[in-house]
Design brief:
This protein has one helix and six strands; from the N terminus they run E-E-E-E-H-E-E. By secondary structure, it is mainly β.
């Protein structure tokens, strides 16, 4: 039996928009494709202050694929560990995420 991570889709589109952008409108990340190309969109990395911001969409994709949902739209937090003067702080940055899938 194949797991949700092994399933293929007819097509998909992902758009990620920053909710803290001062530069204006537009997606920070966009990707579309078919088959198992969506697997490259499970974990996304963006430039952060001192490290990469990690946007983990694993739970969203799992729910969509297992339940054959066709759309997700909502806020997702990207995590980044910022280190300064020996202290580490977890910084959460909100992103608006839209995913569309057809099976």
């Amino acid at each position: 039996m194949e797991t949700w991570k092994e399933k293929e889709v007819a097509e998909f589109a992902v758009a990620v928009m920053s909710k803290r952008s001062v530069t204006g409108v537009g997606a920070e990340y966009e990707k579309s494709g078919s088959g198992n190309d969506w697997q490259g969109c499970i974990r996304l990395e963006f430039d952060g202050f001192s490290d990469a911001r990690i946007l983990n969409l694993d739970h969203i994709w799992k729910d969509m694929i297992e339940n054959e949902k066709t759309m997700f739209s909502g806020e997702v937090l990207a995590c980044e560990t910022v280190s300064s003067s020996g202290e580490s702080v977890l910084l959460n940055t909100p992103y608006e995420v839209e995913i569309r899938v057809s099976y």
